[in-house]
Amino acid sequence: MKNVKKTRRRDFITYGLVIAAYLIMQALIRTGSITNALKNQLVPICVYICMAVSLNLVVGILGDLSLGHAGFMSVGAFTGIVVAMSLQTAIPSGVLRLVLAIVAGGLTAAVAGILVGVPVLRLRGDYLAIVTLAFGEIIKNIITNLYVGIDGSGLHMSFKNAMAMGMGLDGKTIINGPIGAVGVTKLATFTAGFLLIMVTLIITLNLINSRSGRAIKAIRDNRIAAESVGINITKYKLLAFAVSAAMAGMAGALYGLNYSGLAAKKFDFNTSILVLVFVVLGGIGNIRGSIIAAAALTILPEALRQFSDYRMLIYAIVLILVMLITNNPTLKGYLDIAKQKLSRKKPAAQTTEGGASHGE
User: Which domain holds residue 32?
Assistant: First the structure.
């Protein structure tokens, strides 16, 4: 019970930190204390936080290496754009269309995750990483050659060209092949991003602390031992993979509706590696660390814009230093000693308080 209470307390601290950060940013926005450049980065920061948390579920909790997370993000992004643009006339409310787009993006990405996960999750290690990387590239190339439009008779789709869709004179192109999505009505807001982070955290943390989460961690720690006690390996690995893909799809839908145009090349191998960097720097399996790393590393390039000639060099140096510090055994030893000292002081303080009250 003590471990359960400690875990719940840690989860509520994570929720509290996210809520506090949102309130502080809202106060800064209202007082005009942040630049327009940083204000434009708020939705991408929320998106990358959701991506980092969702990938940590696979890499940190399940223990598998996935390099195709941007593929699920792209599925959610373009699904969300199609849904939002298709319902523009039927549903005038932008908030409702945004919610439907995010839900649709999450469901489509979850289906993609299941379709990919069934054959792929039988692999391990480098083989799994290579196959997931290939999946991300396949999705990018499919969307690059996809044409989607809408007219009075409904949606039209083609893999040849825009003319092959056979739309009427009132038709409107939504996805235009290599150009990507065009003429998108921007619906994403910082508040929507904050709510999506909270939903992602609630889903992830509750899954980790559930019976299914314990089974997933058992598979990570020792697959053979987990299988010997009756844990269905395929079922729980597929569950983690599908949930992670769904959250990446929801983040992608929010990201897609934050811009008036979006091309498939945005979701390439580099985006998957960027999200993986957030997970590694924040600590594999550390959800709160993923949040901090994603926010800090998304802001950092913009904060270094005044050093335009050297900002990417400084960014790379910062990444290397953080990696060295977080993986240094000596520094980890100092941190462990500090934690032990703090844990010893707390019981001593409680004993002193108890003795004083007893004497009174």
Answer: 2-288
